[in-house]
């Protein structure tokens, strides 16, 4: 039972001057509300808020330079014409589509299916698409559906996207960490983790992967490893949860096929989002869940039942804006993001060049013990430092040197990455990148000086 103050009449006011009344004890709430995974982003935002003038490599937001408020109205008008001219809806139905509660699975599912066909060479039944309130909701729905009882577990390469880790906490789905190397998830370790989990009486249900430029590590899987992952999933009878927010932002050499596009056995549940490719404020994501159910329905239909009790439906106005965005680009997100991809390529080069100039053999901080990986796209670079890079060091970095970054330990659920930081370069200019790296070099010099 929730622990509250019973003698409310005599309870003193709190230090903020609020009137006396019920006080809840966090220890009596669900464990997720005080889990470090769920509180990590709040903590980082608080630190960033105290140092607004610092150069921030912390934010994983998409580039904002091409946003135009006036285009939102244009997207809505484009979608209105689509409803009227392409789908043949009358004025009442068009108005109802915009202003009323919407279909639980969403009404831009056919446009998303078109995007997957055009950009990913993946043909899906539009009815297998559930449009969600951001990709985060899609993760919660899938994990909630897969968790029957305490024996069910999910696997994920560590370091892992903190939003996915948070979703597992919310639904009480334990995560079995799998090693990640320069080429993505270690498939031998994945097979070993599955065997060990089963030996403990657990049920491994699925494995979460980000095959392209993963957040936070920036690493990518080879085409051969993607096929091998599918083969392993088939042998071990698990699902693959593929998350694909960054594949459009490659270095210019083209994109590898998604795991879903290779999937002939419907092993892959595919997460997609328009946060990085359209704009994050729309909060529109989706999940492709085309796995057949025993009664002839699709897994997507089961997820829709859960969504109907969670968010009922994804914002109709937000869907219409994203629908117009897709229509104006012939349902090709790759075509729509050409300019943004160029910005991310430029910024990635600036970060890698800047790190070499400052921490290479002839840089101002020689023999510093600093190293970094070299992603082929995406928004993130991981830097390894010769000292502990925890939240206290982040605060010191912001206060003394005016530079923010993300401690990698947050992506290991607090158990790993203690000397690593993630640099996100998506919203910075080349000049700000240079200034930020100068400040990072000053921090390193301060920490490693004899």
What does the model show?
By secondary structure, the protein is α/β, with parallel strands linked by helices. It has 2 domains: 31-66 and 338-448, Alpha-Beta Complex (Aspartate Aminotransferase, domain 1), CATH 3.90.1150.10; 70-333, 3-Layer(aba) Sandwich (Aspartate Aminotransferase, domain 2). It has helices spanning 36-50, 70-86, 91-99, 109-120, 134-146, 162-170, 187-199, 223-236, 259-262, 299-310, 316-328, 333-336, 338-359, 391-401, 430-448, and strands at 55-56, 129-133, 152-158, 175-181, 184-185, 203-209, 239-243, 268-273, 284-288, 371-372, 380-384, 403-404, 406-407, 420-424. The strands form 3 sheets. The protein has an 8-stranded mixed beta sheet with strand order 2-9-8-7-6-3-4-5, sandwiched between helices. β3, α6 and β4 (175-181) form a beta-alpha-beta unit. α5 packs across α10. The longest helix has 22 residues, at 338-359. The N and C termini lie far apart (56 Å). Residues 1-12 have low confidence and may be disordered. This is PLP-dependent aminotransferase family protein. Residues 11-21 have a biased composition (Low complexity).
